[in-house]
Amino acid sequence: MKTVGLTGSIGMGKSTVAAMLRDLGVPVFDADAAVHELQGPGGRLVAEIESAFPGTTGAMGVDRQKLGALVLGDDAALARLEGIVHPAVAADRAAFLAAHADAPLVVFDIPLLFEKGGAQALESVIVVSALPEIQRTRVLARPGMTPEKFDSILARQLPDAEKRARADHVIDTGAPLDATRAQVAEVVACILGREGR
Length: 197
Fold this sequence. Notes:
The chain is an alpha/beta fold. The chain has helices spanning 14-23, 31-39, 46-52, 64-71, 75-99, 132-140, 147-155, 160-166, 177-192; strands spanning 2-7, 28-30, 57-58, 61-62, 105-109, 124-129, 169-172.
């Protein structure tokens, strides 16, 4: 089995590429989706997060706006939250791997792959990228997004140029969808073609 990371800065088209990988039959573990499930209604981490950050949960699980306001810019609070969330996501990832043990290739969709130091545990990394103006237009079109919030998120992410430099494969999502889909298929074929080396 080949284990591959999929990453890219906010608004670069990672979700689109992940969907294209799934269309090709590649199992994709979505770290963000796992976190949403763990923190959603009835999620396994809701009580523990409420205990650590009182007033941040309700009937719908964790109130991400309230929790975000508490941890944004507070390194100690963020570390406390990560200490709750990361072990649970790791357990979900292990279960995902076990469920797809016979797959020739699995992809881990991890937004902060380089920032959190997880790349060395994978055989290769795919970075999705687009021009800065495309990225900015995409992100600012999201509900509730502001230029200040976007800048704050970017400040916590490695620059796109550095991600591209560290990548084994780069997929340009600024191209038309068909061109991006062709790049995805080419990368998958390339990765699978390396078996036995």
